[in-house]
Amino acid sequence: MNSEMLSVEEARDAVLARIGRLELETVEVLESLGCVLAVDVVSDIDVAPFDNSAMDGYAVRAADTAGATSDAPIVLRVVDHIAAGRVSDVTVGPGEVARIMTGAPVPAGADSIVMVEHTESLENAGSTGGTVAIQREARLDDHIRRAGEDVRVGETVLHAGEVVNAASVGLMAALGFAKVDVYRRPRVAIVSTGDELVGITETPGPGQIRNSNTYSLAAQVLAAGGEPHLLGIARDNEADTRALLARAPEFDLMVTTGGVSMGDFDVVKDVLEQIGVLDFWKVAMRPGAPQTYGTVGGTPFFGLPGNPTSTMVGFELFVRPAIRKMRGFTTLDRPRTKAVLSEDVRKKADRRYYLRGVIERAADDGSTCAPVYTARLSGRQSSAMLTAMHHANCLISLPEGLSEVAAGTIVECVRLDMEEGTP
Ligand code: AMP
Ligand code: MG
Questions:
Q1: 72-88 residue pLDDT tens
Q2: What are the tens digits of pLDDT across the range 226-247?
Q3: Bigger pLDDT: 116 vs 366
Q4: From atom 12 of ligand 1, which residue's Cα is the shortest distance away?
Q5: How far apart (Å, rounded) are the C-alpha atoms in residues 309 and 385?
Q6: What is the 200 CA–ligand 1 centroid distance (Å)?
Q7: Has residue 3 got a pLDDT over 70?
């Protein structure tokens, strides 16, 4: 066991070095949204599959429309009326057109489409046997979507390692992929510890509080694309804690809250050492110095501190990147933005602070295209209080080594409001 204080980066790197990507699984295409593709998606069709009209109008032979204007329209004979979904068996000959709807296959003989807006229906123009006045000269290929224009047969449309977005889902649907292989979402066990905790439907008695950490953590797991499993509350004794921690191997990851400090009833570290491996348990950060990491039966284990904000910040910095790594992502951390701190902050010099803050774009004078941001605290910074976390859109990172950070200092903000890959 290592009881030295690690830096946040040392702890994060140590954790991530021990975490691997999970195996792939086959899911319904819609369930792949937000997941990392484990395979290339190769098309066995052209998209569009056939030449089709991009407009409602008339399929014409361009040469027949030469010189047509609204003052001097050219009258042509309608030989078919083609709705989307029907293939015409008519060949458009000289002097002929076919009425055609968007998405309908272009009939043989036609080489251009005239929009309905540039025509005037004469007799029965909507149907076979009628006539229509063409008011504009068509060029070859106007408003025709050619077969294979978007995707060619044999083309690799999506690549393994890509993150599936809504358009990828649509593309896969167009190509007939009802299911696809992605890296699996981790099953994450959540355990809260504490004799003082009661369930959220209960009324706390004297000295008791409701168990909120299980829920904030489960929400964070969901948001990170993991599958939370709520195992309930372990009381602050070894037998109870051991019973729940021993279940870790049923899952891909276990996260506990509380019971890792210096209190007389903080037994998580002891139990971890008895039934698993305790790698480290102190990180030079605030909130949440006792960030505990280890394994139980090979399953990665995070013992986050119990104060509600410490729990959430610990999750953000260590558990979320681990979940992303398991899911096959290569970008693991939130985007960071530099901002001008708008108030003086005092801190302990020996550790990194992650203050709950609001980052905003400052009004700029238009002299630069680089946006300027300011950051302020989002509320009172006690780690026992969740309200400042609720109002926060960032964590303001203040480096170790400083005991005072003055207003006007440029600081780095972890963007809780942004996903990886957003600017
Ligand atoms: P601990 O880390 O166990 O010493 O807990 C630190 C503080 O967080 C104490 O005030 C606990 O009551 C509180 N706490 C611990 N677990 C939870 C929880 N699951 N929900 C809400 N508060 C908690
Ligand atoms: Mg406790």
A1: 999 999 999 999 999 99
A2: 999 999 999 999 999 999 999 9
A3: 116
A4: 196
A5: 6
A6: 14
A7: no
- How many angstroms separate the CA atoms of 264 and 398, rounded? 31
Q: Closest Cα to residue 104, out of 79, 90, 87, 84? A: 84
User: Kind of pairing, strands 277-280 and 292-296?
Assistant: antiparallel
Residue from 329, 355, 312, 335 nearest 221 by CA: 312
Q: How far is CA 108 from CA 23, 78, 119, 270, in A?
A: 50, 14, 21, 80
Tens digits of residue pLDDT in 187-197? 999 999 999 99
Q: Ligand 1 within 6 A of 383 CB?
A: no
Spatial CA neighbour of 213 closest among 202, 221, 223, 205: 221
Biggest CA-to-CA distance, the chain: 97
Ligand 1 test: best mutation among 190, 210, 213, most atoms within 8 Å of CB? 213
Distance 393 CA to ligand 2 centre (A): 28
d(CA 306, ligand 1 centre) in Å: 4
Task: Report the separation in Å between the CA atom of 297 and the middle of ligand 1, taken as the mean of its atom positions.
Answer: 26
Question: Which two tokens mark 100?
Answer: 């055609």
Query: pLDDT tens digits, residue range 364-417?
Result: 777 777 778 999 999 999 999 999 999 999 999 999 999 999 999 999 999 999
Cα separation, 329 vs 121, in Å, equals 57
Higher pLDDT, 363 or 19: 19
Higher pLDDT, 109 or 2: 109
Strands, DSSP E only, in 177-239? 179-183, 187-193, 197-198, 209-210, 227-234
Q: Is 291 near ligand 1, meaning CB less than 6 Å away?
A: no
CA 359 to ligand 1 centroid distance, Å: 28
User: What is the distance in A from the centroid of ligand 1 to the CA of 233?
Assistant: 11
**Per-residue pLDDT for 337 more than 80?**
yes
- The amino acid present at 132, given as its one-letter code, is V
pLDDT in tens, 159-173: 999 999 999 999 999
State residue 1's pLDDT score.
42
Q: Is the CB of 287 under 6 A from ligand 1?
A: no
Q: What CA–CA distance (Å, rounded) separates 122 from 58?
A: 13
Q: 257: Cβ below 6 Å to ligand 1?
A: yes
Q: Which two tokens stand for residue 182?
A: 């992605």
Q: Which two tokens stand for residue 63?
A: 């040469």
Q: Which residues have CB less than 5 Å away from ligand 2 (the ion)?
A: 194, 258-259, 306
